[in-house]
Amino acid sequence: MNITIADVAREAHVSKSTVSNYMNGRYEKMSYETRQQIEKTIRSMGYVPNLSARRLSNKRKSRTLCLIIPGNLTRVYDSLYYPTVFHAAEKIAAGENYKMLIYSRGSTVAEDEIHFLKELASSIVDGFLIFDLDPKDRFFLEFEEADIPYICAGQIENFTDYNFVASDHEKAMYDSLKYLTQIGHKRIGIFAPTTASVVEEARRHSIDEFCRNESFDRSAIVEFHVSDRVTETEVLNIWRSVLRDEKSPCAFIVSNAIRTSLLIAAQELNLQIPRDISYVNIEYYRKGALVNQEQTRVESRADEIVSIMFRELLKQIYEPDKTKRPNIIIPLSLVIGETTAPPG
Questions:
Q1: Whether the Cβ atoms of residue 70 and residue 272 lie closer than 8 Å to each other
Q2: CA-to-CA distance for 57 and 315, rounded, in angstroms?
Q3: Which domains are present in the chain?
Q4: In the structure, how many helices (H) and strands (E) does the chain have?
Q5: Alpha-carbon distance 294 to 300, whole Å?
Q6: Confidence (pTM)
Q7: Which has fewest Cβ within 10 Å: 19, 121, 204, 330?
Q8: Secondary structure of the chain: what % helix, strand, coil (to 5)?
Q9: Is 251 exposed, middle or buried (0-12, 13-18, 19+ CB in 10 A)?
Q10: What contacts 6, CB < 8 A, 6 or more positions away?
Q11: What is the pLDDT of residues 73-91, one digit of tens each?
């Protein structure tokens, strides 16, 4: 037997409209005691709302958003990026009386996945926050055609006709390269993932632009490509090999995840930072346990990105006729610390 709102209202000794207001987060004129009574009744009766029925009216919202993230969940916690994203999203959602779902997508979103996501939008989610864009996989345009609210984290090069909020990774890379060359480094090493993403696309474009604008020898920027399937031990072995090679650069631009292995390898080889090795952490979240120095860094603004994405998505959901297309770039700043110095 299906339990209805009427059943809940009768058991809680309130009206159906009061239960409906509770289910839709309209608490303004509802006492704390009434909310507690309804919540207790829902739990004791095992009531599950028919979300599909609730969504039949455009005036009703599920008050649920979906985060779309990469399919390789084993790599989600390799850095502090996704923990930061999840924490920020959870905090904002709680303040807005929203719930969050996480959907793990394939590397290329197939037609059946698109169908499934559209079904979610017609039943249990109000919109999508999309992370880790592949520059060539523009599945989110299907949402646009279907008039489904969405917003992406990241800007695709030479393409702005979609909803996005992005950090200015291009300028961050340019500023990092310029600073290292200004203090005298003639060769710079960059560890970059082999996986295609809008972030890596922006950074690689910036490397080429820097060499062009600053008349810097492109071959003096040495890229070390690391697969997303590589283990921590394998990364450490790569660093050991690089730091032992006398022809390798002595200045590096690294991500937060790669930095830890750099510090371990440098300690093993008795190399001092920054006397022997300089590095810029281009995805800084917080000071690590392995080094007491303040890092030369580009501080991540992932939590701010999520906050802006959430706010812009709610505008699409609740004020679609008034909302302009969000194309928002958040600046990133290079902060000079103690992990860089002129070459010895």
A1: no
A2: 18
A3: 5-49 (1.10.260.40), 64-167+303-330 (3.40.50.2300), 169-300 (3.40.50.2300)
A4: 12, 12
A5: 15
A6: 0.79
A7: 330
A8: 40, 15, 40
A9: buried
A10: 16
A11: 666 776 788 899 999 999 9
